[in-house]
Specification:
heterodimer, A: alpha/beta, TIM Barrel, 2 domains, eight-stranded parallel beta barrel, two-stranded antiparallel sheet, 16 helices, about 40% helix, about 10% strand, globular, B: alpha/beta, 15 helices
Chain lengths: ~425, ~425
């Protein structure tokens, strides 16, 4: 058996703006209903969690302007307030929201996550990111962003500080004895006295621990620094091999993460590594292939979108490069999504920028999954067997059509074949995640 | 007509009280959501969730009292706002944020998000946090000096407003025919450069229905009032007498005019804890019970003084004169606790802490209580009241269905909401 999640890639943002099947998208903007539909669909399908991505900037690197981003609806609301609403409509699904460690005061985050753990009755998780663009740092009052690897040093200190705050209430501290009238035992609540280079906090936390104690920690960075951070702290890891797909690469990533977990004194099963997938489903293989072809052609034709995307990831304005010439040497110039840009540069060798972008646009996810629900389920099962994998995160824009194709088409096949859960064994997200 | 609000904490204050919910339920949404629904039915303008980020440990030099009694744990009120918002359609929901520690960008974005989720009914109660422990929890060695906290708060809210204003009117196009989501020429940077806070912007979250969420302020010191006159749409005022209510409102009128605003731009609501029963005699008896024994009063008053000043008042000689405390913490609260509102001065600390606390007294049947509140408002010239008291379903029902009904029948409070947004309803009269 393996685990399933959905990577909600634009967070509490805009999906399928002005595109086919996106429905009444203007009415869905800044409205929780689509997200409630996502959550209830995923729970019906037996998914472990949904993960809400986040960002703090309107991209403005491409052409030095926000025009492209704003015209196309690149805007996000804070995902944290969605968490209690999604929980109120579900009973078992894990709900993960993203927080940028670089900017969130540890005490504030520790307290918010504990509160959400209560409101979700033990089903909250936090996806830790270090935030990549300079503009994000500037929004938070810094001149420019700290360098990539140092961000992870800071993130490591940040989560240790947050955990220290979560641990200020020992087991047994909450008494809530209605007969003796004692609420909490003060001898079991202690200060954290966390003194770090970047973050400090005295404590104790003035909020009591939730059902999970420590909420689930999720991590997504694929660079060596990111992977080590995940190995040290995460309960689940989002693995993106879109730039570097194929069974061998997935296997290598999986084994690398498991080795890093052991090196950090943890068991290989302590963190579930889920690979991002982009399944394309149809009633027949021909229909699914035709659908894939149409999608790939549309993406390849949208050179502007591809340039804007790479500009965002790299922090470099790609509109300055000649489209029909090889990509100039970018080494040492970018400070963004490090591993993603490195992979792109490697794969761009011997190609013009246009060719490299178009090749990238044909991305199939970690593994190409195109077919009927039955054939895709078989592929997923075979791959999971071969790499001894923990599961997958679906990353396609969550239109209601895509949701029902995955949740009511693919998921029932996976369930019937015993590949994914047919129910939830535990009350808390973390217990379900670690069940198998 | 005047406005009604409720001042509450997301905590387990009802633990051990006769009519409270089960201890295992206080942190769950239901009680707070039910409360919002009841207050909306009663025609309340808003509920205001206060907050704090520390466990009190000054009193007796230990966290014991706070933890054993259940007053200590407090959960993040921001997380309750969307839930109460989903269950109501007109009630305003104000939650507290401490300007000293919240990064402005995070605060601006969270409030814009909540404005969408409540469909224009959210408010931000700005506090500066007075406690040393809070500062230490946020990684600082000591607390910032009282008046400087307000200078920072002023800069903070100006930075937050600059971020809210980065999307100009008309920036959101959402034209499904042309495919344009937003007009980038109407979204600009904030480029706010302050002494304490800076932010480039624009906010990556589009503005909510209110544009700027309602701003609420609760500090009664001169610095706090000056801040409110500049920025607040509503003020929470905690005073001990009708005379003090009157002078508070007059002072705010002057400050608002001096800040270039109209006195009607900011609604001053006074905190009251009504005691209601089926007869006046029963209500008076309940008031007597609530007042407690001399020992209970002394303990409560010493704890309150310790909390507001940051100095352990149990260490002082009860029969010596009231110690002179120059606090960096809650200045106006200390002044009120020391009797400053009425000018009465106690000869000893014992006399001060054993006396019945000063409060605006509303005691009686719902109808008599409503009449008293109407008279007080007439005399003080204020804009309304905020209910405070231990939240139990029974107390909420007494206030919402008992007192609320009586106030409405007398035409003292609204009978329905004329607008969709909190600010519009707040400024409707």
């Amino acid at each position: 058996m393996f685990h399933m999640g959905w990577f909600v890639g634009m967070g509490f943002g805009v999906y399928g703006w002005n595109q086919r099947w996106s429905g009444n998208s203007a009415r869905d903007v800044a409205n929780p209903k689509l997200f409630i539909d996502i959550a209830t669909s995923l729970e019906r399908a037996g998914f472990d969690y949904m993960m809400l991505e986040d960002s703090s900037v309107i991209p403005d690197v491409y052409q030095g302007s926000r025009e492209h981003a704003l015209k196309n609806g690149t805007m996000r609301l804070d995902p944290m307030p969605l968490v209690p609403l999604l929980a109120a409509h579900t009973r078992h699904l894990g709900i993960v929201a993203t927080a940028a460690t670089t900017f969130y005061p540890p005490y504030l985050a520790a307290r918010l996550m504990v509160t959400l753990d209560h409101l979700t009755e033990g089903r909250v998780g936090v996806n830790l990111v270090t935030a990549s663009p300079h503009a994000a740092a500037q929004n938070y009052g810094f001149e420019k962003h700290v360098e990539h690897d140092k961000r992870y040093v800071m993130a490591d200190e940040w989560i240790r500080c947050v955990k220290a705050l979560w641990d200020t209430w020992e087991p047994g501290a909450v008494v809530m004895d209605e007969v003796t009238g004692v609420f909490a035992d003060h001898t079991k609540v202690h200060t954290a006295d966390f003194q770090g280079e970047y973050y400090s906090s005295r404590g104790p936390l003035n909020s009591m621990p939730g059902p999970q104690g420590h909420p689930v920690i999720c991590q997504a960075g694929g660079s060596p620094a990111g992977r080590n951070f995940g190995a040290a702290h995460a309960d689940t890891i989002i693995a993106s091999l879109a730039e570097n797909p194929g069974v061998e690469n997935l296997k290598e990533y999986h084994q690398d993460m498991k080795a890093r977990l052991v090196a950090h004194g943890r068991k290989p099963d302590d963190a579930k590594v889920l690979f991002l997938i982009h399944p394309i489903l149809g009633d027949s293989m021909e229909e699914a292939r035709a659908k894939q072809k149409a999608m790939q052609e549309a993406t390849a034709a949208n050179i502007e979108g591809l340039l804007a995307g790479m500009s965002y990831y790299s922090g470099l304005d790609f509109s300055q490069f000649e489209l029909d010439a090889p990509l100039p040497d970018l080494s040492g110039l970018h400070n963004g999504h490090q591993s993603l840009v490195d992979d792109f540069v490697k794969r761009a060798e011997g190609k013009t920028l246009r060719e490299a972008l178009q090749a990238r646009s044909q991305t199939v996810g970690s593994i190409e999954l195109v077919g009927t629900p039955d054939s895709v389920a078989s592929q997923m099962g075979e791959l999971a067997d071969e790499i001894d994998g923990d599961g997958y995160l679906v990353r396609i824009p969550p239109t209601r059509k895509a949701l029902t194709e995955v949740c009511d088409g693919l998921a029932p096949v996976l369930r019937k074949r015993g590949m994914i859960r047919s129910g939830y064994s535990y009350d808390t997200f973390k217990e379900n995640l670690l069940e198998f | 007509m005047f406005h009604m609000g409720w001042f509450l904490s997301y905590n387990a204050a009802a633990f051990g009280s006769r009519w409270g919910v089960r201890p295992t339920e206080w942190m769950k949404p239901q009680q707070w959501v039910n409360m919002g629904v009841s207050l909306e039915r009663a025609g309340w303008d808003y509920m205001m969730l206060e907050d704090a980020s520390f466990i009190p440990d000054v009193h007796g030099g230990s966290m014991q009292q706070a933890l054993a009694s259940g007053t200590a744990p407090k959960h993040d009120p921001m997380a309750l706002v969307p839930l109460i918002g989903a269950a109501t359609s007109r009630l305003g929901i104000i939650a507290t944020m401490t300007s000293t520690f919240y990064p402005p960008y995070l605060g601006a974005r969270l409030m814009a998000t909540l404005d969408h989720l409540t469909e224009g009914r959210v408010g931000l109660n700005m506090v500066t946090s007075h406690n040393l422990r809070t500062a230490q929890n946020f990684g600082m060695d000591g607390q910032i000096e009282h008046d400087e906290r307000y200078r920072r708060a002023d800069e903070w809210i100006r930075c937050v407003k600059a971020l809210w204003d980065t999307w100009e009117p008309g920036a959101i196009v959402m034209d499904e025919v042309t495919g344009v989501f937003a007009d980038h020429t109407k979204v600009h940077e904030a480029n706010f450069q302050g002494e304490y806070y800076s932010s480039r912007g624009p906010l990556n979250t589009m503005p909510g229905p209110q544009g700027r969420p309602v701003i609420c302020q609760a500090g009664g010191s001169p610095a706090g009032r000056a801040f409110a006159a500049e920025h607040a749409d509503t003020v929470v005022a905690s005073v001990g007498s009708v005379e003090a209510m009157k002078s508070y409102r007059e002072d705010m009128d002057e400050r608002l005019v001096a800040a270039g605003r109209k006195p009607t731009d900011c609604k001053v609501l006074f905190v009251v804890s009504p005691i209601l029963a089926d007869s006046q005699e029963m209500a008076d008896e309940l008031a007597e019970i609530q007042l407690g024994t001399v020992e209970q009063r002394r303990e409560r008053a010493l704890a309150a003084l310790s909390f507001a000043s940051g100095v352990d008042f149990t260490t002082f000689d009860l029969d010596a004169p009231v110690p002179e405390i120059h606090t960096n913490a809650a200045r106006s609260t200390m002044q009120r606790l020391l009797g400053g509102d009425t000018g009465a001065t106690a000869a000893t600390l014992r006399e001060l802490v054993e006396a019945p606390p000063q409060a605006i007294r509303v005691i009686g049947t719902p109808d008599a209580a409503a009449a008293q509140m109407g008279e007080y408002m007439q005399e003080a010239g204020g804009d309304g009241f905020l209910i405070s008291g231990t939240v139990t379903p029974r107390f909420v029902a007494e206030i919402a269905e008992g007192l609320g009904g009586a106030l409405r029948r007398r035409g003292l409070i609204r009978d329905g909401y004329s607008h969709e947004h909190l600010r519009d309803n707040l400024l409707a009269f």
